[in-house]
Amino acid sequence: AVGSCRRRRLAPLNEDNGRFLLLAALIAAYLSAGATVFSALESPSEAAAQLRWNRTLHNFSRIFNISLPELRAFLRSYEAAMAAGIRVDALRPRWDFPGAFYFVGTVVSTIGFGMTTPATVAGKVFLIVYGLFGCAGTILFFNLFLERIISLLAFIMKACYERQLRRSGLLPPNFRKGPAVSGVGSLVGWKPSVYHVMLILGIFAIALSCCASAMYTAVEGWNYVDSLYYCFVTFSTIGFGDLVSNQNAVYQHQGLYRFGNFMFILMGVCCIYSLFNVISIVIKQILNWVLKKFECRCCPKCHKSNTRLSRRNAITPGARLRRHNVARDADGQYDSDTEGRRLSGEMISMRELTASSKVSLAILQKQLSETANGYPRNVCINTRQNGFSAGVGALAIMNNRLAETSDSR
């Protein structure tokens, strides 16, 4: 039983890999469920529309005495004209400066409506180079926006938290920032709740979408549901292109509408991007909870054998190695004692016992130093980390600034 547990511990499926595989399985199931629902909802409508179109096509060919191959060739030319941006009704020019600016905005933000596409070879080649740097810079902008909006929310929520503590009498009126207060704990390391941040960002995204939808309903003539649908598709950078704003040739108060459309899209994309990242953190916590539920548990015999080993040796080789690694990472220098001779698999030499005592003394001295200097007591001892240990991009920002994520690591 002990050997099987050791083999399980040495298995390549660690927590990160397990979380990745679990998320991949959930995404596959989510995609399958979504495909099933949309197929059931939209397939009958598509079949009915195809039947109506075939009936209309044959009636038109019979009434006007036009052969079906000629009629289909004409319709293909019409589809090519639509792809080039030509419409029966008068529309705004696609490649004047405002239209081109609208196009590059949808490119770098990865919205990609598709109503305007470069037709020349030079334009397509330039788009590849332009989009490479433009999309990277825009993603960096979104991450910096996320960092600042989280910092702003943290500052506001911390001020509200301190005010609540003052009203309850747990903080003195002249308390600002400093060491811990008796009975309260230090507010230096206080972080906002990820659920509160998600709630605030969700409310702001809904309010922004409702205001933008009211504008699109009044100016574009869409119904309110279509306007909400357009806001979500655009702000989430899905960008189907079935509904596109600011495409008519003339609008009332055209300059003001173009500015409002640009600001709503910019603020909406930034807000939804931040909200998606917060939701992703919540999903990650759910995955961690599921992994703990499916955690490998040894058989009762193995538990009993581990209990006997722990009772016979207060300091086990595994515990000594873990403490030795922690102190070596904390202090940066520590002599290895792995060459110490062991008498058996469950006993350690005197050299190991001496080294473990030194480790405990080093940890105690470090904790006393941190307490004297006013640092939080839950500061991580393992300070030697590589550049990617805290995460990359938006996940790293959320882990460093929100409470549940940093505490769960």
From TrEMBL:
Transmembrane segments: 20-41, 100-121, 127-157, 194-215, 227-244, 256-276
Reaction it catalyzes: K(+)(in) = K(+)(out)
Origin: domain of life: Eukaryota
UniProt entry keywords in alphabetical sequence: Cell membrane, Ion channel, Ion transport, Membrane, Metal-binding, Potassium, Potassium channel, Potassium transport, Transmembrane, Transmembrane helix, Transport, Voltage-gated channel
Gene Ontology CC terms: monoatomic ion channel complex; plasma membrane
SUPFAM superfamilies: Voltage-gated potassium channels
Residue ranges of coiled coil: none
Single GO term (MF): outward rectifier potassium channel activity
Name the record gives this protein: KCNKC protein
Source species: Nesospiza acunhae
The gene coding this protein: Kcnk12
